[in-house]
Amino acid sequence: MITSIEEGLPPPELLPDRVYTLPEVRYPSRLNVARELVDANAEGGCADRPAIFFGEQVLTFGELQKRVNRLGNGLREMGLDRGDRVLLRMPNVPEFIITWLACQKLGIITVGTMPMLRARELAYIANDAGTTAAVVWGRLREELEKARQAAPLLNGLIVAGEAQAGDIAWQSLLDGQPDRLTAEETGANEAAMIAYTSGSTGIPKGCVHFHNDILASADSYARYVLTPAEEDRFGGHPTLAFTFGTGGLLVFPFRFGASTVLMGPFQAETMLETIQRYRISVAFCAPTSYKLMLRVPDLERRYDLRSLRLSVSAAEPLPAATYEEWVKRTGTELLDGIGSTEMFHIFISSVRGKVRPGATGVPVTGYDCRVVDETGHEVPAGTAGLVAIKGPTGCKYWKKPDRQAEYVRFGGWNVTGDVYVRDDDGYFRYQCRSDDMIVSGGYKIPGPEVERVLDEHPAVAESAVVASPDETRGYVVKAYIVLKPGPTASEALALQLQEHVKNELAPYKYPRRIEFVERLPRTETGKIRRVELRRQELERARAQGP
Ligand code: 3UK
User: Which of 319, 339, 359 is at the close of a domain?
Assistant: First the structure.
């Protein structure tokens, strides 16, 4: 049994300082997140209260506990044990939540992956995390099966949803298993999950979160900003594999005995219908989704949104205009918040009654946030600098000490790469990213990763990928392409290049705009000057006007 994963964690001198100023985030040294989220409800008077709504299904906390226990017993019988890593590849279905909780209960480390990832991305994650088993949704099996050819450790494949003959069916693991299972006495500081983020270099980085990190986010951000009650129903579309979704659609509701409403991929009408049908009271979406919902004609008359107490917007900046239109038309509050996979969830957020449209907000209770210069010194109000954070959660990259030293700097501060200005009243205003990451529709797309794939195409000599302003998505991916001698620039070739990227990487990473050029701007040392191309895109957008 592996009880220590210290070999994969950063050395102590590279760990962020943890701040436990809030009494709510001080936990006993033995802590199991599944016991706190499931057993505490099922045995604490909430057994008959709804935990999960999905289509026609309603799962109470009592039933959820039984399924978690039965699956946990089944996983143990398969030989999985504390410290093992298990890859999850599922859409937002109850099976995802049950599997995640069953793993946590046994001290198994979950490695959630976004459903859109392709084989090469999945193989990288499986090898990096050392996952020995995977739970995959039947309809998403193909890319994972391809990935397995390059991931020798990944042996056990458990198929949920539509299984085929010869599969280890997820359901068969529950069949005949006892309803009871005692949670492992995991340490508060023991790894519970590894969440993968794309770095600005395009190499995915695993972010380790302990049992206490996950609860601390609920007991700081959710407790103080969302003020949840048992009657609340949380809902939205971010994938459960993204920590924005893990928090908003699993951890936060369950921490407060509230329920979660799961739904398929985002569509403006479906989201509005789901809010109305299940009487969602706390919604989680990226700003692009709010913009798309606001395009639904007459939405305020066509849908009954009175259940909505507040909505959360994160993953990219929420424009003041979107905020104002949403509040005016729906009569409900919308709170921007910045979070990251490294920090688990939101650390600067708008607060009800004190929103400044266009500003992200103020530090979440329990977090210390500053704007600093390149040497780590705080800059005066009104001056742009890097945002630096200390709190009860923090970055712990799995097996990436170099990257750790880039994120945790100045003696224990988490530095996300975002440029902020703090105004005189203490509000934090987002400016831009300081690196090559493109934030588009809430997705993070590292320019260099897309370049590497474009450069593999036989027609391409070289490429540079930058963010290009876009009204709906904030930014879109734009590729500047220099062709090899021979092929000629054409619409058809542009389409071909887009298809190539979609086949090799998660499709949301493909360049929506392509421009063929003779050469790329370079520095004297020969580096591509992406900053020049970014400036060009900004100027073009300004010239075109809104
Ligand atoms: C950007 C924002 C401006 C910012 C996330 C909430 O987005 C999440 O995690 P990721 O690792 O990306 C982190 C980066 O995204 N960003 C996020 N929110 C905002 N920029 N305003 C915002 N409100 O560059 C940040 O460094 O994908 C968000 C909760 C959990 C998350 N993982």
Answer: 339
Please report whether residue 414 resides in a domain. no
**Number of structural domains in the chain:** 2
Question: What does the pLDDT read at residue 533?
Answer: 93
Answer yes or no: are the C-beta atoms of 272 and 304 closer than 8 Å: no
> For residue 4, what pLDDT is reported?
52
| Average per-residue pLDDT for the chain | 95
Q: Separation of 437 CA from ligand 1 center, angstroms?
A: 11
Average pLDDT score over residue span 524-535: 83
Its domain, for residue 455, covers: 437-544
Q: If we measure between CA atoms, which residue out of 55, 493, 61 comes closest to residue 254? A: 61
Q: What is the pLDDT of residue 3?
A: 43
Q: Who lines ligand 1 at CB under 6 A?
A: 197, 242-244, 314-317, 336-341, 345-346, 360, 416-418, 430, 433, 439, 444
Instruction: Examine the domain organization and report whether 163 and 293 are in the same domain.
Output: yes
The residue whose CA has the least distance to atom 13 of ligand 1 is 340
Rounded distance, CA 437 to CA 433, Å? 7
- Quote the pTM value: 0.93
How far is the C-alpha of 225 from the C-alpha of 219, rounded, in Å?
10
Task: Please name the residue that has the structure tokens 């990226």.
Answer: 286
Ligand 1: centre distance to CA 273 (Å): 27
For residue 425, pLDDT over 70 is answered with: yes
Q: Is residue 50 part of a domain?
A: yes
Cβ pair 67, 97 in contact under 8 A:
no
